[in-house]
Amino acid sequence: MQGRVLVVDDEKAMVLALKGLLGKEGYHVETAGSGEEALRRIETGSFHVVITDLSMNGVGGMQVLEHARRVDPDLAVVMITAYGSEKIAVQAMKLGAVDYVPKPFDNDELRLVVRRVMDTVLLRRDHRRLLEQVERAFGFEQIVGQSPAMRRLFETIDKIADTDVTVLIRGASGTGKELVANALHYRSPRRAKPLVKMNCAALSQELVESELFGHEKGAFTGALGRREGKFEAADGGTLFLDEVGDMPLETQAKLLRAIQEKEFERVGGNVPIRVDVRLIAATNQDLESAVRAGRFREDLYYRLRVVELAIPPLAERREDIPLLIDHFLKEAARRFARDPKPLTGEALRACVAHEWRGNVRELRSAVEQALLLAPGPEITPADLFGRPAVDESPPSGALPATFREAKERMVEAFERDFLRQALRRHGGNITKAAEEVGMHRQNLQQKMRELGLTADDALTEPE
């Protein structure tokens, strides 16, 4: 990227000399013949570095510095000072100037100062741009949901992300545990350092320790050289251990020591290696049962579970399904360069009623497949499931005349039962039930009227 420089001086000869000198270095150079003009140029221009004379008639270099820092804190200001002005230059440095060059200056010295300052500014802006991209990629917009359970999850992530607290993420397969780990890391002060991930269930018992702690040459058959482990790779950043419940007991003891002591030895080595790592673990297992059965160390369990984040299965937050579908459709259309296709109302109701045993991962796969393969302009239930979305026996009595009518009956039965349970949990209080299911009170009342459901009905067991 070509750096943009603003040269400010009320001596025309100096302005021309600096413009020529820096232009030959490949910079885009603009000039201001007074401090007043510089203030206007800083307001309207997009500069990386301002080089300004300290002493000018009218608005001086200190005022230019203060204005530049106020308009753009990342804008670097280099002062050119007259002989004997070193004390004022030091004061300017305290106010935010990055450097100063005394007159008469050496051209090579000025080139070096500007190059160093420009490299720093460009690197800082590139880093911020990268962090913004990461934030978009791993912020809450990737963890979609407005249900009460998900709002509580987001609030907890915000509270603990900027700490080094160890976190245990609980949730069934496909609920998004890795996305939560991403959000914790990229919202933390460690986000500029690595987020290293390891799936403990994907490795044999023999390889888990080597993967975690690395190994020395000759530590075991096939160890042809020294290898860095995940702990070393994550130094200064975050280590995410997925499916931690599958870790062998012997390795659990070494992991516990590494967490407590913040040091470990490579396999086959005896030299302690110190690291600064934040640990996030995840599991879909019942660790409490594993502790009772002796398959998981109780001391490690409590060390990992300083803060626990529980991700609800999709079946417990069905109100989020339309939001997830919209998100996945837009994402897939962009990734596959396809025109977006909406779901029919019948398909959307079928998705809300579907069991989704594979949780968000299954929903995403179904939506992506339907977008690619649906023959019509809209996505139908057949495009998503290839069969009825809810595999249940039809209600007693006369069979519906059409598949659509059968599906609508099933969706209506689900909605009635879902809302009745929410109302029962709150003793018939419509306001509290609406808050729990993520609906406005008026919308819940309207839905209850459509379903013929009253608050009193919710307090009695359905026949």
Structural class: alpha/beta
What global shape is seen?
extended
- Average pLDDT works out at 86
CATH architecture level-2 label of the largest domain: 3-Layer(aba) Sandwich
Q: Give the distance, in angstroms, between the N- and C-terminal Cα atoms.
A: 72 Å
Number of domains: 4
Count helical runs: 20
Oligomer: single chain
Which parts are unreliable, with pLDDT below 50 for 5 consecutive residues or more?
Answer: 388-401
CATH fold-level name of the largest domain: Rossmann fold
Radius of gyration, in Å, reads 31 Å
Largest sheet: 5 strands, parallel
The CATH H-level homologous superfamily of the largest domain: P-loop containing nucleotide triphosphate hydrolases
- Can you identify the CATH class of the largest domain? Alpha Beta
Task: Please explain how this structure is put together.
The protein is α/β, with parallel strands linked by helices and 463 residues long. It has 4 domains: 128 residues, 3-Layer(aba) Sandwich (Rossmann fold), CATH 3.40.50.2300; 174 residues, P-loop containing nucleotide triphosphate hydrolases (Rossmann fold); 71 residues, Helicase, Ruva Protein, domain 3; 56 residues, Arc Repressor Mutant, subunit A (Orthogonal Bundle), CATH 1.10.10. 49% of the residues lie in helices and 11% in strands. The protein has 20 helices and 12 strands. Helix 2 packs parallel to helix 3, helix 14 packs across helix 17 and helix 17 crosses helix 18. The longest helix has 32 residues. The chain is extended, with a radius of gyration of 31 Å. About 3% of the residues have low confidence.
